[in-house]
Write a structure and sequence with these properties.
single chain; alpha+beta; Heat Shock Protein 90; Single alpha-helices involved in coiled-coils or other helix-helix interfaces; 69% helix
Amino acid sequence: MTVATTADLEEQDTRRLERYRRVTYRSFMFAAVGFVAPVFAGLGAAYSDGGIGVPVVVAVIAGLAVLTWYYARLVRTGLEGGASRRDMVASGAVTAALSLMLLVSPWFTVVPVFWLSAVVLSPLGRGRLVALCTGTGAYCAAVATVGADRLDTSGTLPWYAAFPLMFAVFSAVCGIVAFVNIYQRRMWEMHRETHAARDALARLAVTEERLRFSRDLHDLLGHSLSLIAVKSELAIRMAGTDPERAGAEMADVQRAAREALREVRAAVSGYRAVELDAELAGVRAVLEAAGVRCEAGEVPGTLPPEVRTVLAWVIREGATNVIKHSEARRCAIAVTVYGGSVVLEMRNDGVRGGGDAGGSGLTGLTERVAVLGGEVTAGRHGRDGFLLRAAVPLPGAVEDAAPEPAGSSA
């Protein structure tokens, strides 16, 4: 029977984190298209109006290509921990040069906002963020004021009235964009911290289990081994002077060794035993860690030990199949008693194609349940659901339902 190991769960969690990282990065790349498209529209309009010539168009397109490359680099390094100051300064110089196109087209107002949206992904203090937004707003307002006067689009507002208005608008837009992107970066950081916390908790759980096992072995074997050592040393000393006493001491050593061996075997079998309540709690924790919401009802407390063990194996195999063979978001586990049988049902959604195929795990599970006279059924349930059902007869009910011997009176 295949069992999902800690390494399998860690690999799945790592893949989920990497998938979220790619989604976050691609969202910024899609936003880049929304920033660059208006720039090309303004560039085409300026060229059609005769405001700029071919050399300027070529230079602007080259500058946009460089700025887009810097944008992708700033986004990637910002999500990984922070961009270098050299990249910020170099990309800022390219942005300042392209922003001069505000003199011929107002569409180029998106260029500085485009650059700032990538820069703020790197960790910056509050003071630096305020300075970045106000500095960008002041530069854009100055260029836009000159451009408005040059293009005669400022209406009746003089420059000393238009500049404060544009400064306020540009600074507010920069502040809003910075807030949104910083929030998205913090969401990404929360996912990274959650991934690291899960890994730390898993390692801590393994360490605590090792310490518990070592404590149990010490408590079990410490007294017995000390007794064996003392008795053996006494037998060695008495071997020459009192052989009969030495033999008696060695007999005690033999009994102590057998008792220690029995205790160790009992302890190991206890560690290896699969208990229904413990398995159910462990499966819920594993599924929740894998992003599957698990709902489990109460387990009847009157089930025989052998039935509880078999049902625990069913739950373990079912959870393994949910993790490995589906993209489930919900799993429900119910253990109920119907008449003379106990029925365990595990339902989950998110079944991939070919979900009805049985594997070696279900085959071994069927054999385990068949030993107690039960049966296992598994298959698709609904549109994208899967149902694993195990019915095991209760020993008392089987005896009550046994047919009467031939010849008995009615």
